[in-house]
Each structure stands twice: as C-alpha cells, then as structure tokens.
Amino acid sequence: TERKLLDAVGGANGGNGVSNEVFRQLVNNTLERRLFYIPSFKIYRGVAGLYDYGPPGCAVKSNVLAFWRQHFVLEENMLEVDCSCVTPEVVLKASGHVEKFTDLMVKDEKTGTCFRADHLLKDFCKEKLEKDLSLTVEKVVELKHVLAMLDDLSAEELGAKIKEYGITSPETKNPLSDPYPFNLMFQTSIGPSAASTGYMRPETAQGIFVNFRDLYYYNGNKLPFAAAQIGQAFRNEISPRQGLLRVREFTLAEIEHFVDPEDKSHPKFVDVANLEFLMFPREEQISGQQAKKLCIGEAVSKGIVNNETLGYFLGRVYLFLTHLGIDKERLRFRQHLANEMAHYAADCWDAEIECSYGWIECVGIADRSAFDLRAHTEKSGVPLVAQEKFSEPREVEKLVITPVKKELGLAFKGTQKMIVEALEAMNEKEAMEMKAALETKGELEFHVCTLGKAVSIKSNMVSISKVIKKEHQRVFTPSVIEPSFGIGRIIYCLYEHSFHTRPSKAGDEQLNVFRFPPLVAPIKCTVFPLVQNPKYEEVAKKISKSLTFGGISHKIDITGNSIGKRYARTDELGVPFAITVDSDTSVTIRERDSKDQIRVNVEEVASVVKAVTDGHITWANAQSRYPSHSSVSVDEE
Amino acid sequence: TERKLLDAVGGANGGNGVSNEVFRQLVNNTLERRLFYIPSFKIYRGVAGLYDYGPPGCAVKSNVLAFWRQHFVLEENMLEVDCSCVTPEVVLKASGHVEKFTDLMVKDEKTGTCFRADHLLKDFCKEKLEKDLSLTVEKVVELKHVLAMLDDLSAEELGAKIKEYGITSPETKNPLSDPYPFNLMFQTSIGPSAASTGYMRPETAQGIFVNFRDLYYYNGNKLPFAAAQIGQAFRNEISPRQGLLRVREFTLAEIEHFVDPEDKSHPKFVDVANLEFLMFPREEQISGQQAKKLCIGEAVSKGIVNNETLGYFLGRVYLFLTHLGIDKERLRFRQHLANEMAHYAADCWDAEIECSYGWIECVGIADRSAFDLRAHTEKSGVPLVAQEKFSEPREVEKLVITPVKKELGLAFKGTQKMIVEALEAMNEKEAMEMKAALETKGELEFHVCTLGKAVSIKSNMVSISKVIKKEHQRVFTPSVIEPSFGIGRIIYCLYEHSFHTRPSKAGDEQLNVFRFPPLVAPIKCTVFPLVQNPKYEEVAKKISKSLTFGGISHKIDITGNSIGKRYARTDELGVPFAITVDSDTSVTIRERDSKDQIRVNVEEVASVVKAVTDGHITWANAQSRYPSHSSVSVDEE
Question: What is the structure's pLDDT at B558?
C-alpha cells in the first residue's frame, strides 16, 4: 500500500496536488511502521481513541515538553505544579463539568449502539451535498446552514433535524432515540464505599485553581504570577474519530496566569509587540474574509485583542510553535465568535494549525476573567482572592443599602427575605435610581427576580446612602488568562508539517523524511563506521560515550548496511545528523536536509553535535567553523 | 508547633536522639509550608491518599525523572514508551489484576465504614504488646507471631483472629463483617455503553508487555533489549495511611528488560561488579541476622543473586539512588523470601530505604521469568515470542508423545480427553520413565491431576519416542527482568535523608536546610544584589538571563531582606548556590553546605553554575579554578 501511496505523492511535499487523505495515510503509515505511535492494546484489537507513544514518539513528546518547560516555565518564572488526576465530584461540580461537560448522544433503538448526534447530522448533510445532484438551491443553502450551525444546536433542535431528514442508525438503519446529554468524564469511585464519586480530570486547570491560595502565598502574595502544569487528562468520547486528534486520554500543558482585573498590562509585551503572524479576528470571520497577517502590538492597541497579557501569550505561543517546526503559513490565531465563547470569558483565541484534517485547534488562549476562582470560592467557602495593600489608606466612596426589615416584614410577610436580598444585591446604578425615585415620588415598583414579580417599595422601607470610608487595601478576585496546549495535537501536526519525500539517488523510488528541527528530533544523531573495521568501531563507541555523557540521544549502526540504506532508515526517524567514522582522528558530520558535511576532530564531535542540537549554535555556524567535506560517492547509493 | 519541634530536635540531624515521629513531623511541616507538596483539593478538605506536588516538589520530581532517563534510558539505550492509563478489562484479566489485586476488607456492620482487615489486627496486636502489661509470655509470643505472619494470612485466618480477639470497629465499637477481598483498581467504563469495563492501570508494566512484539521488531528482532516507561499508576487503597508513602495515585518508572532465559549474562556487568553495598539475602533474614555489605560481583558468582542481569540492575539502582542523595548506610537490598515471591519469579530484590516509617520498599527488582508474556500470549492469541536463528540448521532431539486415542477411548470413555492431555503434558523425564515402565512391565499407574486419580496405562495406549529433527531456529518466550521505581517514595525518603538543621549565626534558633545535591535541587541558585542599587540589579538581571538560556532554574531576590534571612529562606528549599552581586565586573558564588565562596567574572558565572549543577565539574573543581572569597561579615547575620 505504502508503495502505491508514495507513487501517488510523487515528488510533492506537504500534500501539494495530492489529496489530503492520501497524504495523511502516507504519513500515518510511516508513523505507525516506525512506531511513533501504536494503537493501545493492539494485540487485544485495541480501544478506540487510545494510543501509545512508541520509542521515537515518546522521545518527540519528551523534547516538546522539555522545550515547553524552558520556553514558558523557566523563561517566565512560572510555578509548576503536578496535581492528581483522580478528582472528587465536588470539585467538578464547582467547575461546571458535572453538569455541562457533555455531548449529545443518540442510541440505536434496537441494538443500543451509541452515536454522537451531531456527527450523524453532519455526515448526512455532507453526503447529501456531495452526492445528491438533484438538490435544489434552497436545499443546498439549508444543508450548508445546518453544517455551520452544528455546534449551536440544542438537543431538541438536533432531534428535530434528525427526524426531519429521516436519519437512521448508520449500519442497521434502525430508528434512533432522541438526543440526550452524555457526560464525557470517566467516572469512578474513590475508596471502597461506592458513595464517593470521583472522575478522571478532563483538564489540568482545576488542580491549579483549587491551589490558588497556597500558590499566591508562595509567590509572596504578589500578582501577577502564573502557575503551570503538564499532565494527563481524560475524555470519554462517545465514538472517537480523527485518529490521533480526538482521543480519550491525552497530555495537556496548561498555564493559568493570574492578574489584577484592573491591570492586564504585561511588562514583557514589548518583547513580542513587533511579531507578525496570521490572525483571524471575529470581524473577518463574520464578514467572510480570510485570516490576515497582523502585528500583535497593533492588534492589542486597536483593541482587536482584549489586553496586553493575552497578546503577550499569543506572541509567545506563536514563537513556541514555530520553533518546534510548525509551518508559520499553516498556523493562525482565530478569535472565538461571541456565541462560541463562554459567557464569562473576556476574549478567547485558538492557535489553529492546518493539517490534512483541516484547521485544528491546538492551543486555546482565553481570558476566563474571575469565573473559576469565584466558582471554587463559592463552593468551598474558602476565599480565593488577592489583596492590594495601599501604601497609604485611601478614601473610598461606598454604597450602603440598609433594608428596614421591620417595615418590609409588615408589608410583605413571608416574601420579606427575598426582597431584602434583592435590595442588597442592587448595583450602584440601580440603587442610586431607586434613591432618586423614593426621594421624589416616595415609592416605586421594584422587580424581584426570585419572586418573578414586582413589588411596591416605599421610602420608609430602605435607606440608601453613600459614605466615605478609609480603606487600607483592596480585596479582589484575580482574572485568569489561560493558554492551554493539546500536546498530542501539536505533535501530530508537527509530524505532518515535517513530513517530506525525496527521490532516492537512483531516482527509482521516493524516500520518506521527517524534517524535524534538532530540538524535536527523537534521535539526534547516528554514528557509524564507514566500513566494518574494529578500529573504527572503537572510535564509534568512544564518540557514543561522549554523546551519552552530554545527554544526546543517538544510535550506533554497525550493521554493515550500505550508507544509502542507513540514511534512508534514519531519515524516516528524522535524525538530523550522522557521524561517519572513516579515520581515527577526525570524522564527518552530515546534516540531513542539506546533505552538507563537515569534518571535525574525534574529541570535539560530541560537543559540536550537542551545541547544534541544543540550539546554542546553528548548522551554518558549525559550517563556518569546520572544513566542509565532500564525498558524493558514499553519500547515497 | 514547628518552633517546639525544632527545639526538640536541637542540633541533631537525621533524627539522632529524636523520636522518629517528631523528626517526621518537623520534615513534613517544612515540606508542606514550603509547598513541596499540598494535600490535593485541600480547600474541599482533601481526599485521603491524594497529594499534589507544589512548585519545589514538582521541580524535584522533574529532576529525579530527568536523571532517571539519563541514567537508565539513555545510558542503556532503552526503548522508552508512553502508554495509556485507561486499560480495558481483558488486559488486566490476563495479568491477574482483576482476580488478585485485592486487599482484605471488613465493614462496620452498622455504619458500613470499611477497614483493611490486616490493619485492624496489626493495630490490635501492637497496642496489646505496648500497653497491656499483664500479657503472659505465651501471649506475647503469639501476638508477635501474628504480626510476623500478617501478610500471609488468608481471609478465613484473618477473620478467625478478628473474632478470637474480639476486635470491633475502631470508633463505633460495632461488630465487623467477615473479611472479603476488595479490588484495588479504580474501575470505570470506556465509551457510552456500560458494558465496556476499564480500569486505571495499577502499574505501567502491562503497557510494555502488550507491545512486546512491536518493540522486539523495532529493536531489529534482537534480544536482549529493555523498554522503559514513566507514568501515573493508580491504586484505590481502602484507607490510606503513611502520608506520602501510601497514596492512591503515583508516578512509576518501570523497566522491562527482555532476555533469553538461557542466557542472563550482561555485557556491562563488569562495570558494576566491584560495587559493595548493604544486601539482605534470604538466608540472613531467616536466620535472624542483619543486612551486610556484599560485593555484587561476588553475590552473583556465589548464586546469592540469581543472574548477572539481575545483579547488574541491583548495581545500577544503587548508583542511581546514592547519586540522588540517598544515604548509602540507610539503603539495603532485601531479597524476597520464598513465600513473598510470586510463584513464577526466579528471584526478587527490593531496594529498601530507611526513613522515619522504617525500611520502605522503593524499588522492586524482579526476575519475573516468562510469566507476563505467556499470560498475554494465551489471552490474546498473539504469540509474544522471540526467535534465535541458527547460523546453520541444528539437529535437535525431540520428544514425541502420541496417545492412541482409539485405545484410550475404549478404555476410559468420557475421561479420555483429560487423559490424552495429561499424557501430552508430560515432561521429558516423566515420559522416558513411562516408556521404560511400559517396555518392561507393559502397564503402569498414571496420576491424572484433572481427574484427581490414577489410571492404568497399557503399552498399546501411547507411543513415546525420540526423533532427531533439523531446526533452523529456536522460538521461545523471553524472560523479563523488571526494575520498578516508586518515584514518590524515593523522593520522600530523599527529603528525610537531605533534611538537616543548623544553628543560626546568633545561635538563638535552629534553621532547616535540605542538603539536596545540585542535580536534585528544585532551584539551582539565587541571585541577589548585596545592597539595593540599580547598577547591581542590572547585573543580577543579566546573570539571570544567562542562567535561563542555560536552562538553570533560579530566583532573583531583590527584596532587600538581610543576607542571613535570604539564606535561611533558600536553605529551606535546598538551593545549593547563591550568587551575590557586589560589583559590576565580578560576583561571588556561595555553596550552601560548606558556606565557601568563590569569586567569578560576571560573564562566566552562569556557565560555572551550570557546569556544577549538571555534574560536569564538582564544587571542589570550581574552587581550584577560581579565587576564594571570604566575607564573614555579610555571610550571616
């Protein structure tokens, strides 16, 4: 199969002129054959949505995470934590996951097989649009509209559409149940009593929120600060599709950056302000335009991006992804539409990477305001707040609303309590309007939500005034800006962006190569003697020892295969450098993509490879320091 | 409280003369106050057995794991994988966990509260022995015997003892149920149908075993090779005790080293053969002796340790743990007694570390023979085997047992099948004895296990012969040698072994210090200007940038606190180096334990700190290269 796929791809890289499916299959065949990933429990026919990282995949993941730690945690002095996956129900009730972390599901009424309701509707519409040539223009418009609205449909609306289109169970053609919500968390019990419900966390963020108070203290009671966490998260998908992109267990790397809601500036914003990259603001999406290159400094100053801190992270995420090897032309930052965004969010942007599946959300960068800390404060009773101490006391005008309970009790009896609460809950504007009305008219109609009606409030029932108070500090709930990275998705897109084919020397076949940057490459270099010779093998072993000491993953190849075959094998693993031992004093280093070679002393070679793979010097630097070596005759066969 | 504890400890380090409990409380207070760990979901009153790693704990863990990767994966060229935590039932049925991974539990018959049966019996015996002065000598012996046998008692025996001693529910004094097994795995459902049972993995090893075939192929179909995995594992303990040592979620680092069962030699054994460390062989335990220093080379050659590969890993584990800072006098390798060991295991040693809880198993190093691969071969139907190709075909003598079914059927009717199976299952010795008996006597009594009785076999019922066959390869199930590391336990013991107190300069108080090796320290160095001065702050920031570039975690402290206070704060985090900026050309580096200082140029300081923390040079090396600096006046206050 792979041979056929390769022929289909021909010399094209990155899927030019080849269908996305063919390109994807070629990449995935290579990934699975070289054990970048393995379907979990494969000998037991696997479990949908679960994948293992095999040796090269595991190394790529380690490298990506190590770079994430360097780029974010270390550079920004973040507080990294590592919290439990098993989570008691109360925490996820507070966060809203128990109630809202659901997908709508339908059941085959006879076999009981479950499907995601939106998937069935989507498949139906797509197939109709592709294959039914008799569709009227109106019908085409309608189906396209349904596809566009898919994420916004309620259970009732989805159910109605499924009925209207006569959609049945895909294989059996049996009727389907009405859509109903299925919670996507893996549920379990903590301890021997079944009473204590727990879930496997669906995200790592909650672990940080519940620890806010301790982390704030650890940071010297100062804002802003960021906490970070890398760890497993779990989503019990109804029927996982999209291979490595929609899985039931995955690694997240999340940052919760806590700021004063009144000051979302960022001291290092200037460092990224001049970066230009593809952005796709809300306006452009609504008006049907394309993503366009914008300068992040400008985007913030024009108010396209809500604040500096959010903008700073957009820039840092852009640098992170492109550094890993994501093609900057296939990376865009898309702003959430108003209807996509949670009601509490101030602004939200997704870093989307284009791959054979389309534009895929890989990093979400959201200003979640104070929602999460408030939710846990309320549920736990522990105030998750910050204080700003004033250098000297400030005079603050305070609104004081004092309901006169006696009068209210006489007038309203049993409903008094709800009216008192409603009065106390008035904001400044409402209260001042009431005060004015009571002063001029002596009474007014006041709508009480909890009663569902208006009551008549008279001037003797409440006193409203403003007083000047001296305050020594301000207590507030911080806002949180959350960049959340789907590590597996980033890695998958990286595979597609790094995958290339090139003709063999003889031109008779296409060879696969992953053009990983050295930073990402699972194996940094191979070491092999040019010919089988005990003396060269000794040198190779000595070099291997120095590489190990330097922490550089590598492979010795003394199989005696031809140089060309060895390169072909290591190219498929994306190994960026090859050291060929052809003397016992100096050796050559070959770079994968340019195929250029330099000659370096045996004693120095490990440190040169380390410097290039750690990113302390570039390959061009190395080339300028060491003599080049040309040996076309042995380079390929 | 902590102040009192400190006074109790006085100048003693490592718990000399202080009760273990006091020492433990002092260490744990420091750990929790400095956020090395946090009880998970603390604001919701936590969940027993779940802990989060706060910032310094998380950094220590990262450092330990990075060193594990360097020491094992990189040095030994292991194949690292990263498998799913969610595991379908079939896998854990094959491994035996569904059936046997249980603890015996009793229930308070009125409240339903659950307890570990062995814990209640243990508590009862201990309390009796400690507090009941009227015990007879016989009773004392009996209770001590029960304590010694605790792990070996069956449900019935435990239940009988609980009845005999009249043990009741600890708080309510209600009667208890009979003990029954409680499975320690967290159970869940995979996908929307409740039919698909899954568990959170109780160990990472199974992920490697089920991938054996692919990994063997990846390794060029060659043995030996090792696969490794770092990841979360889960045990739903009945009622967790022992703080950070017995938890419900933890990080394991496991190695599965696959070898030919006929050749367990190790090419690098010579590298560790001369190491000497505390070993506690089976014989010494039975005869009531102590652990003693043995040379691992000798232990293997004398057969105390079963084979070279097992011995090699004992040595490597010893190097790993002592390198991290585990005290070699409080580290021993204890061999499992015959009754502790799984029936299939060839040999098993635990690396035990002594801490305030006693000797704690932190690494298990077991030769598990072919058990796991065979179990999955049988359950999955996929042969998990290796081949040894012969360079030329070998003539092999093969035993052929051919039961004559017709005759057996006539003689035994319905039980024929079981007799055929029993005949075919004979090993060479049994078969040759039967052959001889049949040739001389014409018949013999043959015991058939599955029938539970002997039957009379006549010479016409079976033919037994030896034939010479030409074979081109040998197919066999590899043995596996498994070093399995409980990372959290190692880290906890490391905390205790690193914890010291020292008097403040004024001598009026005891200060805590974690004497972590630089490799382990969560923060490698602090940078602070000697006095508040913008010029020095600039230098400090410049140094900080170089440290970040080099990947060295550090902290700038420009609080203006006294130097002594700053040292006290950083000592509690175990920071090994402090850079004091007192000029804009050169600065001082102070080492935590010796308090020695050297003077280094601003440009060089980051690379010196990096070299020392990466272990490329020692502090003594650094001292010999750079001038020493004495400034007692500012060192402490």
Answer: 78
Tens digits of residue pLDDT in B148-206:
888 888 999 999 999 999 999 999 999 999 999 999 999 999 998 777 999 999 999 99
Residue B88 pLDDT exceeds 60: yes
Which ipTM value was assigned to this complex?
A: 0.88
Residue B7 pLDDT level (bands cut at 50, 70, 90): low
Contacts of A74 in chain B (CB under 8 A): 548, 551, 553
Size of interface A-B (CB pairs under 8 A): 218
* B82:A200 CB<8 A: no
For the entire predicted model, the pTM comes to 0.88
- Residue B246's nearest CA partner among B54, B38, B49, B101 is B49
Phi-psi map region of B510: left, alpha, beta (phi>0 left; psi -120 to 50 alpha): beta
CB of B335 closer than 8 Å to CB of B349: yes
Name, in order, each residue with C-beta under 8 angstroms of A558's C-beta and a sequence gap of 6 or more.
A528, A529, A532, A537, A540
Instruction: Quick: pLDDT tens for A20-71.
Output: 889 999 999 999 999 999 999 999 999 999 999 999 999 999 999 999 999 9
Cβ atoms of B137 and B67 closer than 8 Å: no
| Distances A3 to A23, A505, B126 between C-alpha atoms, Å | 13, 17, 71
Q: What is the mean pLDDT of residues A152-173?
A: 92
Which of B32, B36, B41 has the highest number of chain A CBs within 10 A, making it the mutation to test binding with A?
A: B41
Is B40's CB within 8 Å of A193's CB?
no
Per-residue confidence (pLDDT) for residue B1, from 0 to 100: 56
Backbone angles phi, psi at B498, to 5 degrees: -90, -10
Please, are residues B253 and B316 in contact by the beta-carbon 8 Å criterion? no
∠ CA(B158), CA(B160), CA(B164), 5° rounding? Answer: 120
Query: CA-to-CA distance for B80 and A57, rounded, in angstroms?
Result: 9
Per DSSP, the three-state class of B247 is coil
Pair A266, A236: CB distance under 8 Å: no
Report CB contact under 8 Å: B86, A50.
Answer: yes
Cβ atoms of residues B92 and B206 within 8 Å = yes
Helix (H) or strand (E) holding B138: helix B137-149
Could you give the 3-state DSSP secondary structure of residue B521?
coil
Rounded to the nearest 10 degrees, what angle do helices B117-131 and B155-165 cross at?
Answer: 40
Pair type for strands B386-403 and B462-476: antiparallel
Backbone Cα Rg of chain B:
31
Q: Are the C-beta atoms of B275 and B318 separated by less than 8 Å?
A: yes
**CB atoms closer than 10 angstroms to residue B452:** 7
Least confident window among A202-211, A509-518, B415-424? B415-424
CB B593 within 8 A of CB B534: no
Closest approach of B401 to chain A, Cα-based (Å): 32
Distance, CA of B151 to CA of A316 (rounded, Å): 55
Average pLDDT over residues B20-37: 94
Give residue B326's pLDDT: 98
Count of CB atoms within 10 A of residue B408's CB?
A: 22
